[in-house]
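Please produce the structure of this protein holding fe (ii) ion.
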Amino acid sequence: MIDIDVLKINHWLNARKITLLQVKNKNKKLYNKIKKRKNFSISTKELSFLKKYLNIQQNDILLKKKLPDFIYFSKKKILSTKRPIKRDSIHFYNYYTLPSPQGFKSPVILDILCPHYKVPKLNNGHLEQAITVNLGPGDIYGRWGENIKKKENFSIIKSNKSKNNWIVGDTYLEPTYLSHSYSLVDKTPSQILSYTAKSQLQKFSENSNIWPNQSYKNMIKAITKNGQKITFIKSFLDSRGLDINYIAKKLRISKKQIENFLKSKKISIKNKKILEKICKIMNVEPSIFNESKFNEDRVGKTYKSYKDCFKSIRKFKSYLVSSMSASEKYPDLFGIFMKVSKKKMVKDLEFYASTHYLATSGKMFFYIKNKKIRFENGDSIWIAPFLKHGFSGDGSIIKISNGECIDYQDINEINNLFDYKKTLKRIYKDNINWGYDT
Ligand SMILES: [Fe+2]
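Below is the modeled complex.
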């Protein structure tokens, strides 16, 4: 038997404009199950019927596990996930996994084992952008490119051995597909926390991978010729049935100006006005084509030393905190170092995003609902969004979020809603049909 989410079935019935009465005529047994408005199990035969009748795939209606309030992993449990990995014929890293719900990205801790006298061999990079934190105790070398004489390709990621050592070390944010590798700087061992976020490109990757080959080839051909922005603007115009003659007349700009704009590979300040006018006629928000400048080096990473972190030390509720490396490019991926010193029970935290915590020193307690959980050096917690919680005791924590429960694009959609209160109320566990045959 296969577990089916009745909310997903309801959504697909609505989307396909098929009423329950119509299901009843086709398959009475299934109708009786859906009618109860509770999750239900179906046979493979019933699944085949639904797949065909609703023109969907199995995954579209499968019941997913509900998220827990939180997941706690002790240091011991994290150590038990240890798995060695080889690269360049040596024992290169040990990986350890932090807690995460099923299907969510999991942060990992790595033992850096490549010795100081060896240049660490690069990996191939990955889709997920990531924040890397040197957990110490040693400094490490980071490598991001072939030519290690260039600073952006090879530099020391320091561990903090001085004051404010709750800020454990340097942090940096690495973009999609940047190759990276690490080695020790001397005989001192060291670890890193590698905290990946779901890439906003994952949806595009999954979608484009099922395009016809020719479609993707043609897109790349156009982008190679005109750059990605002009290619999309041109195709936006074509798709909406707008040609240069029409928009020149309508916008009272010369054809030449528009042609020059469509020949430029960059949206310069000079032609920003034209972009805005063209977007207006297309009913498209121009910001998606704007040239943005991000705080990043020549390989695309954003670096912050622990010393720079000292500058942003501040009091926040019952904690001292400081911000890690971050970029406007990845608004879902951000972290802070936290120092805990409150003696008494406290539940002063609640965040819009799901959050990971890793205890980096000390003995603390974690509070949620009426629970009190020991939280000590090396322990880790994942917590769902919008739940009150807090920490007491004496110690330090790394807190990072990655936008997996709600991301900035979701928030952008919510912000654009016509009636956000009504929509947000309706969208949660929406089991209402669209209103016919009742
Ligand atoms: Fe990585």
